[in-house]
TrEMBL record:
One term of GO molecular function: DNA binding
Tc1-like transposase DDE domain sequence ranges: 193-294
Name the record gives this protein: Transposase Tc1-like domain-containing protein
Domain Transposase Tc1-like intervals: 70-142
SUPFAM superfamilies: Homeodomain-like
Any GO BP: DNA integration
Amino acid sequence: MGKKGDLSDFERGMIVGARRAGLSISETANLLGFSRTTISRVYREWSEKEKTSSERQFCGRKCLVDARGQRRMARLVRADRRATVTQITIRYNQGGQKSISERTVRRTLRQMGYSSRRPHRVPLLSAKNRKLRLQFAQAHRNWTIEDWKNVAWSDESRFLLRQSDGRVRIWRLQHESMDPSCLLSTVQAGGGGVMVWGIFSWHSLGPLVPIEHRCNATAYLSIVADHVHPFMTTMYPTHDGYFQQDNAPCHKAGIISDWFLEHDNEFAVLKWPPQSPDLNPIEHLWDVVEREIRIMDVQPTNLRQLCDAIMSIWTKLPEECFQHLVESMPRRIEAVLKAKGGPTRY
């Protein structure tokens, strides 16, 4: 019948109430399930001191890191988000009267709300690119979901056969995910694996085209003529569709611009701001495909198997998945406006 932890104020009140109601120590113990010693002690404390709450929270060893120490530790974290617990401990102990262990530092950081996370990867934005992103968001801030349904989204993506294990971790609070000091800037680059080009709209998934070699202007012209054109004319027979593409060099080649100019009576090309993958919902489809590949029971062991897996997963993407992404566009635009053209969490 012994208690397993401190009594709550309610339990202490029950004990006092039962004793005042005339129950004996044994009867109270049997009724409430506490030991006779506990019943006697609680009622005695109430009778002598009118005490009905525990003071055990004031017992025990004092915390080695007080409020001032926590503020100092927070400054160390903000000064170097990528510091390890060992580095933070060494820097904290320099000049301090008391030395603390790495375990204490780790526990204190968690109590302060910090956790070790991977930084969000965002494009490296220049001042000019920020301005162009902001202008795009301002020009489309009044577009409704119905307007965005008229856009066909496209992009290339590369899937690696073996992912890199190199990961950078940072210390941050829950609300600091988009703080500039918590971000990891990236630039567009190549890599091994399989490259594909895809297109989709709110209405339907389009074709997914493997790119065997480097995607130059000639290869991209074939994609535009053989896949973009039939998709746009089928999805938007009233010629009210917009085709989205990023600003890759092959997309801006003269022969590509001339082709779109010849077909401008069938659909328009959406003017796209530079370095804006966070505005393109197809990026999230690539993430879905990537995750599905990594949870396959039998992992691809060569590029042919990887390509087959990508094509199979793409065709099975549920409709609600890509429709929900298109419906997120008003929120994406607002996020860019709020960030004044800077990177967003999308």
